[in-house]
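Predict the 3D structure for this chain.
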Amino acid sequence: MPAKPRAGTRRKVLKERPAERYRTAGLEVTAQPVVEIQIRVAGADAVRLVALAALRGVTPEEVVRRALADFFEHATKETDSTDWEALSLSAFSEGWDNPEDAVYDRWREAYGVGAR
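Done. Predicted structure below.
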């Protein structure tokens, strides 16, 4: 028995066509070629969505479609761990080496401890 959709959400296949096979991110997937999903966006998120759509001259639906396309593009890219490592080290050094924390670098002077 299929799971019931949550309140406020609906999912339907636009055209009843046979499922197609797709190959993505090294996986073979069988899926319906078109799926329509209705989402509810409220409050500040709704205001931001409408404002972004107006700035871009597109509909809010187009903003969501593009965001989903960007998500899929980035989610399926393989990222080299050394890139992440370099990025994290760069961010760490920016936070570590700054004038406000320089006083902590001189702890030996502050506590009268000689160098080894």
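The CA atoms of residues 20 and 33 lie 7 Å apart.
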